[in-house]
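Schema walk-through. Below, the input block comes first and the output block second. Nothing else is stored per chain. Lengths vary across the set, and this one has 299 residues.
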Amino acid sequence: MLWIWLVLLYGVLKGAREITKKKSMEKNTILEVLFVYTLLSFLMVVPGAPKVGGVPWQDMVWIAVKSFVIFVAWIFSFKAIKKMPISLYGLLDLSRVIFSTLMGVIFLKEAMSFWQTVGLVLVCAGLLLYRYQTGGKRLFAKKNADGELLTKEPSERVGFKIVCFALLSCLLNGVSGTMDKVLMQRMTSTQLQFWYMLFLVLFYLIYIIITKTKIRLLSALKNYWIWILSIMFVIGDKALFIANQSPDSKVTIMTLLKQAGCIVTILAGKFIFKEKNIGYKLFCAGVIIVGIVLSVAMK
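--- output ---
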């Protein structure tokens, strides 16, 4: 079915986006990347403006709420990506499976088949296996009385606050994904993408004005990673919104399909960022992929 391939495309692009986010922040601050990234993405969907009218004000309010949820989620995720190995972020990001699946079952009344339940268990198992493997090493950083890290491998240690940022981002993205399914029954993908991006730009602009944050606009515009990030975001979201419009699509299955992006981030961790423990992370990701295949192929 077309919607399955569209969600897989979104998942792969999502994984690639995490890489470009990390690369883009090597030259610019988090807020510079966020603002210019959302602004460029919005400008790319402006040509569809003549087709975005006719949305009831009640739905406009919900689109604004969705945009605010993503506004906060992206701040958390960018902070997490900047501070932790990209392969580790890719695995932590899988926790959104739990949040999104629960929301699909509770709020959208979606029924879970036996194989979808098995798939969800395997996805969760892959994440827990990695957590178990890091248990002896301490995923969260431990410090002595002088505040020094008690480790010789700081690149694999992540502060508790940063891990919380990643998990909060996953929770908020789960909320947004559930809202997508509802909103796409009331409007076109062009309408949702345009208004959602407009509100998102406005939220970041308001935040910049209130906090009086200095933005090096010219520097950010010269950062080609931000341009690549924006292009992938627009294509990925368009594919996801169209998939949500399909009456056959289910949030529970879509959530599992999106996790294909974790393979991209883990491989990037090895070949681009030279991170460690890639073999074990790939094993955990393999367990997750088996869960995804079972949930879709056996549904």
